[in-house]
Amino acid sequence: MQNDFLNSLQFVWQRVIDLVDVATQHPSSDAVRALLDETVKGLRALDDNALICGVSAAYDSGRVDEAIRITAAVVRVSPDRAGAHFAAGLALQYADRQAEALKAYRSAYVIEPDHPHLRNNLAASLMQVDPGNPEIIGLLEQAVVDDPGYKPAWINLSRLRPGETTLERAEVATQRAVSLAPSDSLALNNYAMLKKEAQQWDEAEEAAHAACECAPNDPTMHFNLAAIQLVRGNFNTGWEGHELRWQGARELKSGRPVFTKPQWRGESIKGRTLLVWGEQGMGDQLQFCRYVPMLAERVHREGGQLVWNSFPQMGALLKRSLGEHCDLCTIGGGIEALPYYDCEVSLLSLPLLFGTNEDTIPNPGRYLSPDPAAAMRWRERFAAERRLRVGLVWTGSHTHQRNPYRRIRLERYVAHFSSLIRDVAFYALQPGAHEDIAAARAAGFKIDDFSEEWRTFDDTAAFIDSLDLVISVCTSVAHLAGALGRRTWVLLDVNPHWVWQLERPDSPWYPNTRLYRQKQFREWEPVLVDVAADLEALAATHRTSANGIFPSSAT
User: What would be the CATH architecture of the domain defined by 273-360?
Assistant: First the structure.
């Protein structure tokens, strides 16, 4: 097939050369028109199989851009040909131009819905462009009906979809995918991911190991294994694999920033300036900034200097809390705006460099401090409030791939907490959630919202410092409250971010944090029953304490 494509392509290429030659010598001649007609005929002569093989060969040789141009040309001269649109979609998919690939596949689907493997490829593009689209499952289920032995369709079908509330469908597909492709890293990786949701962690880690063995050079497989190791508390091996996040994590596919100076890997820093910087999300910055004092102590002990660049949204908070340990603190800006440095390191690489285990986590208590004046102003505003002051967070970033599993709708809080209004004052810690809050208030749930008064994390920190408790799903506010040393209850799905580990009700990263965990996939009801009971007990303790009988507990 590949030879057929190359032979046809050689014919087309020769006509192009002839066309250029004649056109530059005789631009008005009939020969130009004749050669152009021959070129178009050559493009039309590229049959479907030759096109597909050619696209694959171009991808393997790093020439996918050429395949995109050729398939686009075939589509232009044969717009009613499903195979041409399919090949164009495949080339675009290889180039990770998923939205354009989706458009090409949809064009093919209109012409010939049963074109071989079209439903699978269309579903694969939808997974990237619109992962919550219910059309995905239907396309893949029909694809395996059309070709029960087609491994890619089973592998794609084995991936859990955001809207699913049970694991049964994915479990069947995963088993089938692994049976058809026992040495396929993607099949094994999907199997591992599903076993995480099923809380079968031994099986998950075993499958992740197998995926790494089948694809030893694939950073995604190694990063996924590291995430399992870290969530199980195996820091010794997990940190090393975590360093592959820039190559292996989907949300970091844009790649590590390109600095002009080398990355620091723990060598002596004597006589040099080290730049430490924050990466990924706000929660990561909040969790790992605790390493700055430890890093500064080593840098200064060895005779170096430390420069810290942090996110603009939290620059004031971090500088006030930890800036004294650094020689210079800067906020935001591009790489070109950074101050002088000799080498650089990310905050998230410091656990590996310091060999962190559970017993050596630095600054596990309160290591961030809000603006004292701002915090006092909030305390004064709430001075007359005798009830327990509780902040609520019910969703993380809507663009985060795990948010559909982590979030709890506000109406669930309303259902379980409404009876506690007499003893609890609730405050929204969810910026931009006006519709949710309005609906809750319409249902009779009194919740105050001061979020429009906050511009930075420093503002939010001052507000949180005036509360008695924060109840949150896995999001940056949980890390902020924990870093402030405030009493925090975090509600976790069955497959939590590795930071929270497994089974335990506490966190070695945040001693004043209590963890409430799902027992079964997507079942929040038992979690909320437990939280509501504990909140009622804490409110009663607070009420008694306010009357001067005994103090409330720490968590």
Answer: 3-Layer(aba) Sandwich (3.40)
